[in-house]
Structure formats: C-alpha cells, structure tokens
Design brief:
Distance between the termini: 36 Å
Largest sheet: 10 strands, mixed
Strand order of the largest sheet: 7-6-3-4-5-10-1-2-9-8
Structural class: alpha+beta
Order of helices and strands: EEHHEEEEEHEEHHHEHHEEH
Number of helices: 9
Shape: elongated
Number of strands: 12
Oligomer: single chain
Length: 262
C-alpha cells in the first residue's frame, strides 16, 4: 500500500471582532507549533535554558497572533535584544502566506543593551523593509508586545495567557472602548462569547517551520570560501548554524567545490 504523504499539523488562529467594543480578538491553541518546535530541537540536538525557552515560546505565540492581524502578503521579523530577565536575543519571523513561524535564541557573542530593545521589521511584496526600534519595559513577553503596540502600532493591545498553550491578543480598533479593553482579563477573554456580541472574521493557520537546507546555505558559504580555508584544512569541515532556527549543518571542502546547480 502506498504511504500517504506526511500532513503537518497547524495551529488555527481565529480573528474575532467584538461588536460594540470595536476591538479585534486573535486567539489560538499553539500546541502544534510547540510540538514541532521541540521536535526541531531534538532533531538538531539543541536546548534552551528553561527561562529562555518559556519566553521564546510565549514570544512565538504572541508574534504569530500579531501576524494574523496584518495583511497576508507581509513577512515579519522581530529581534528582542534583552538585558533582563536574562541576557539573550530572541528572534522570531514568519508570514501568513507561508503559514509558518520560526524562532530561536542567541546567547553567545551578543551585544548586551542598557535597556531591553525590540527591532521589528516588516517586508511587503516588492517594497523596501520597514523597521522600527523601541525600548521595552517590563519583564515578560506579554508586557513587551503590549509595549510594541503602544509605541509602534500606536494603539492599545492586550496580551493574555489562557493556559494550556492557548494565547490571545486583544487590540483596539477605531472607536474602541478603551476602558473595557484596559479592564479585560483572561477570564473575560476566554469566555467572551458569553458576555459580548462577536463575529468571526477569518481563520489562519501556522506551523513551526523554517525550510532551511544545506543546499540553500552553500551559495553564501562559497562566497566566503577563502575565509573558511583554515578551518577546513584543520577540521575537515565547518559547522554552520541557520540564523532563523539554529539548525546546524556540517559543510566539507568537497561540498564547497561542487558546482552550483543550474
């Protein structure tokens, strides 16, 4: 019997308009994303410290919810350059068009800022990247994303951990009931249909997926072949980490000597 092709599991995100409050609610269960994230770490022998791991997972979820508020034909990337509660860079990126999100942490050879910083980049089809840089206050991903909404989006946004890998983002739209939004809590958001009039606008789906391969990395390394000569002569190979997902690939001199595929 012919084996069926593997079908990846996706986290389904709902975009819900809260009538009379003029607020947009994004919500989803990120268990499929986290499952693939941990499978990726196991496959490549990677590990994050528990505190970093938790904040990276939360950042992945809240970043993905933010992407679902944006037009489909955009690519987004965030780098959180942190000095507290730990010294690390958290990087996340993705797109609704590819239905994917990916992220990693950097803990070595990083510049430690005086204050937590967020570098956010948006790329629209055929246009130059737009970058915003903001100072982050607070010590949690929820607070950082709410900072981003106030400073970069210039509107109120609230983040909620609903438990069990479920997260929500509630953001103000024109004419929003700001008092209601500021007073909202996780219990209200979890049972919002019981208290408010809502309308489902759309759903999007995402999985943790990078798509990197050694073949995609080789062209860049060939341009650096002279710089890698000493390492290749001593070690016989060079280990290269994907900047998006931290997957490590071993590249040999023979691989660099092969002609590019037509």
């Amino acid at each position: 019997m012919e084996q069926e092709p593997f079908q990846p599991d996706f986290a389904v995100l709902e975009s819900v308009f809260v009538r009379r409050r003029n607020c947009l609610l994004l919500r989803g269960n990120f268990t499929p994303v986290y499952t693939d994230y941990y499978l990726h770490l196991m496959q490549h022998g990677l590990r994050n410290e528990p505190e970093i791991d938790l904040d990276l997972k939360k950042t992945l979820a809240l970043f993905t919810l933010h992407m679902a508020t944006r037009p489909w034909a955009e690519y987004h990337a965030w780098t959180l350059n942190l000095c507290t509660p730990f010294q690390a860079n958290l990087f996340v990126c993705g797109s609704s068009l590819t239905e994917s999100v990916v992220g990693r942490s950097f803990t070595e050879d990083i510049r430690v800022p005086e204050e937590n910083m967020l570098y956010a980049q948006t790329i629209r089809d055929g246009s130059q990247p737009q970058t915003s840089v903001i100072v982050l206050h607070g010590a949690t991903p929820e607070e950082w994303v709410e900072n981003y909404y106030r400073q970069s989006e210039q509107r109120l946004g609230r983040c909620f951990d609903l438990g069990g890998d479920r997260f929500a983002l509630l953001s103000a739209q024109p004419g929003a009931d700001r008092d209601w939004l500021l007073e909202a809590d996780a219990a209200l958001v979890a049972g919002i249909e019981e208290r408010e009039e809502t309308r489902l606008l759309e759903t999007r789906r995402f999985r943790f997926h990078c798509g990197c391969t050694v073949g995609k990395i080789l062209p860049a390394l060939k341009a650096m072949k002279a710089d890698l000569a000493d390492i290749l002569s001593e070690e016989g190979r060079v280990d290269v980490a994907c900047p998006r997902c931290a997957a490590v690939y071993q590249v040999t001199a023979d691989m660099l000597a092969q002609p590019d595929a037509p």
